[in-house]
Amino acid sequence: MRPTVEIAIPVYDEEMALEGSVRRLHSFCAEQLPYSFRIVIADNASEDGTATIGARLAAELDAVAYLRLSEKGRGRALRRVWSRSDAAVLAYMDVDLSTGLEALLPLVAPLISGHSDLAIGTRLARGSRVVRGPRREVISRTYNRLLHLALRSRFSDAQCGFKAGRAQAIKALLPHIEDQAWFFDTELLVLAERSGLRVHEVPVDWVDDLDSRVDIVHTALDDLRGIARLLRGGRRASELQGLAACPTPRPRPNQLGDRRSATRRA
Questions:
Q1: CB neighbours of 1 closer than 8 A, spacing ≥ 6?
Q2: pTM above 0.85?
Q3: Beta bridge pairs of residue 42
């Protein structure tokens, strides 16, 4: 059945975290999300046991799918999942579930109601509660300040791995996004703002993943190159006009959650 919300989880060599995180997310959505949902494990060419675990979870759990990619890249994974999805709202989150799941409904509800076109979790707004080291805090704030100065962006947190958008808006933006890796998020948001789409921000609780294998220096250099490319391509905003006129998606009830609620009532 066509879901209202589809959540992509990009993974690379995550055999230790994958099963627990997917089961936790699946249980939360079934119990707490009032819309029908699908969880897609997007495997970025993992070399450990991720593929076996992902395929087993997809076979065992309702509303879980597994997709194997032959190349790495978070942006590449999201592009593949989102471009082929039939859901009304497309979302993604990091496999470590560093962002509190209580923010999921506030993230997707404004998209379903028609209030917004994209929604992002932010760790840098009033109301957010964040646990992370001073180095990452400084890097995050510096990066987002650079975006504000160089690209005149208005969103507060480009890098939080907790985002969603109306399918029509995201699919219209995808052909214009060049990055296939970590800068994908930033490029998506910048192009959304240039097109006049409405970006909603949700303060989140966030706990740093101490096992994160992100190469901060390499990622920062890629981000700087991406910013320079967007500066050169600033006039492309004219190509993106008209994306703001997206029809409001029609929500479908979370039938799995409804069945469990009926069971409890019985």
A1: 36, 252, 255
A2: yes
A3: 10, 67
Q: Encoding tokens for residue 5? A: 């919300």
238, exposed or middle or buried, with CB in 10 Å at 0-12, 13-18, 19+? exposed
Beta strands 162-166 and 118-122 are: antiparallel
Q: Find out whether 68 and 43 touch, Cβ atoms under 8 Å.
A: yes
Q: Which CATH superfamily is domain 5-244 in?
A: Spore Coat Polysaccharide Biosynthesis Protein SpsA; Chain A (3.90.550.10)
Structure tokens at 239: 């190509």
Residue 61 burial (CB < 10 Å; 0-12/13-18/19+)? middle
CA–CA separation, 226 vs 161, rounded Å?
18
Taking the CA atoms of 215, 220, 225 and 226 in sequence, report the sign of the dihedral they define: positive
Active site residue 62: no
What does residue 88 show for φ and ψ, rounded to 5 degrees?
A: -80, -35
Catalytic residue among 94, 179, 185, 223: 185
pLDDT range class, residue 255, cuts 50, 70, 90: confident
Would the CA dihedral through 103, 98, 219, 70 be positive or negative? negative
DSSP string over 242-262: TTT--PPPPP-B-HHHHHHHH
pLDDT digits (tens, 9 = 90+) for 74-109: 999 999 999 999 999 999 999 999 999 999 999 999
pLDDT tens-digit readout, 147-200? 999 999 999 999 899 999 999 999 999 999 999 999 999 999 999 999 999 999
